[in-house]
Design a protein that fits this description.
The chain is about 20% helix and about 35% strand. By secondary structure, it is of the alpha+beta class.
Length: about 110
């Protein structure tokens, strides 16, 4: 899974927080590895960080994200939900519907 630069910077900061507050995170669980956002001064369309997320299905990817990223970073899953994310289409489709996952995490 590719991480947008803004998320990457925030995730690194969140990992070092010592807090009793819950954290909400929204992540696009995509079926492709395309990364279409560029930050000023960059034109390579490459993410600043990759999260190693395994699985083909939404459920497998959520499990991998929780056990492989959140828990090792010191967070426990409180709850999550699946919501649709409509994104820009192409010549074949006017839009695509992707899966977003919204997580509520608490520090362990």
């Amino acid at each position: 899974m590719q991480v947008r630069e803004g998320f990457s910077n925030h995730w690194t900061k969140c990992q070092s927080l010592e807090s009793n507050f819950n954290m909400r995170i929204k992540i696009d669980l995509q079926n492709t590895n395309h990364f279409s956002f560029n930050f000023p001064g960059r034109s390579d369309h490459k993410p600043t960080e990759n999260l190693h997320i395994e699985g083909r299905s939404f459920e497998e990817q959520v499990t991998s994200l929780v056990t492989g990223v959140f828990q090792p970073s010191g967070f426990t899953l409180e709850s999550f939900t699946r919501v649709p994310y409509l994104c820009e289409g192409d010549l074949e489709h006017s839009f695509y519907s992707l899966d977003d996952a919204v997580f509520v995490l608490k520090p362990t």
